[in-house]
Amino acid sequence: MRFGRTSKAVGVAAVAALALSACTANTGTETPESADAEATGGEVRVVEVNAFSSFNSGTSEGNVDINGKIAYATHSGFNYINNDLEVVPNEDFGTYEVLSEDPLSVKYTVNEGVNWSDGEPVDAGDLLLAWAIGSGHFNDSTTDDAGEVTSGTTYFDYAGDTGGLGLTELPEVGDDGRSITLEYSEPFADYEVAFGTMTEGGIGMPAHVVATNGGLADEEALIELIRTTPEGDPAAPEERPELQAVADFWNAGFDTKSLPTDQSLYLSNGPYIVSAITPDQSMTLTRNEDYDWGPMPSVDEITIRYIGEAPAQVQALQNGEVDIIAPQASADTVEQLEALEGITVERGNQLSYDHLDLNFSGVFAEESVREAFMKTVPRQQIVDSIIKKLNPEAAPLDSQLFLSDQDGYEETIANNGSAEYAEADIEGARELLAGATPEVRIMYNRDNPNRLDAYTLIAESASQAGFNVVDGGLGASDWGSALGNGTYDASIFGWINSGVGVSGVPQIFKSANGSNFNGFTSPEADALMDQLIVETDPEEQKRLQIEIDKFIWDSSYGLPLFQVPGVDAYSDTVTGVAYMPNQTGVWWNFWDWQVTQ
Q1: How far apart are CA 189 and CA 181, in angstroms?
Q2: N or C: which terminal CB in the chain sees fewer CB atoms within 10 Å?
Q3: Residue 397 zone, left/alpha/beta (φ > 0; ψ -120 to 50; rest)
Q4: CA nearest 382: which of 399, 397, 401, 403?
Q5: Which of left, alpha, beta for 74 (phi over 0: left; psi -120 to 50: alpha)?
Q6: pTM for this one?
Q7: What is the pLDDT of residue 146?
């Protein structure tokens, strides 16, 4: 299961989604139209806060919300998540069958006729590559206490957690060439959403493209490489140049802000194909005429504009320049939207929270310095400034793993030590610094008004204790790729999740994992996360996460700031839009959108 990160009043919530009721939307559960739905044509124009930066949303750099949404619209998979946060199989694409429960054995089969947009079939090679990436099977790296690789290699820069698929050995490839069977050494809580979920961008990138661009003759050569290369052994790491070349291309070969001249770099196996990009401004998706293996879209074209500021989004909607927006939630924005004629406004909590993370290196290598900085953060002032007018009951979020409306939240905040940071304590921070004046560079999306406000308040408060805060803000298409690159000391962004499963916890907090950007490491927490992904009892999952949450707080990791409220608005020129609290947002049922004028 992959989490994403956003840049509207958020990021992408690192929340372990135990409770599935964090949204109070105006619409009920919807089921997509079947594959024989009749198209109505036309164009829908959507606004996104972030700017597109990669066709591969599965890497740690590409794992930004806009990239994931484009992957969602251009890829297909074995299931999707509806707006009741239920997993719904997509049997038009293929099937997954539990062959055995002890040991857990699951067979995945892609239907005949499911193709990439260049005509090549989606087949066992694509499934096998997705497994190799998601399982970490070939990694032979060893990391130190700071999470830095000291020997060996981590091949694929995978944003997700490899612990789940890592419970499997080399899959059995079916004689039909369209199926693989995974056998797990232990029960795996998230097996249903761990592989080929539409919400996570389907099965990922095309194996035949990765193979040839990685220096191999063809997809068959890649299949042979995966099947014959031994599993990685950290005790005896070895150089594997062929595998490294394939991984290097997968890691960076699909990154771009513009439309590549090589069409193989943006192939689709889903409802839409990217047809145009204006860097840092807009993107156009056009119907994939060959697609008939899943929910069928009604409109011919979707245009995405990147607009960071809420007032500009509202103005574009009012002027009839766009049809759907999901701006940063604020009382002023909601008031402006509700005053517009012909506009529907929907509101609800998101499965998302904003947070401040401190790197476990450089100026923050010492825990006392991290603790001092955390004491300066005016969380209540941030909530009052950004959220309070929209939600008078809003309060600072006091957990890294639970949202305030989730089962387990009250129990974890009574245990995790968050009460120590209920209010800013400048004097306490000064005492810890003992006259030192550390320089702290904070990275955030400077085109996101909420993030800019949070940075400004934090910088002002921290300077009172003696910190020299440097503005490390980056643009809307640059901040995501900078995460974890060592050019800053602290970051402000957010996490949002799919609303199902628990694999997002180790993805972000387990030592050396792809989305563990600040280098947090805890052997005790790692052991608990290993238990978590094989635990199927919800109550036990909750208990484990409460323990993990305390280890995170005890380490002076950083601070959650607030749960993110969501606001969607759309014109009466389009129907079928439905609120969704997870990372797909209004896109979750784009196939139901229809143009009315």
Answers
A1: 17
A2: C
A3: beta
A4: 397
A5: alpha
A6: 0.82
A7: 62
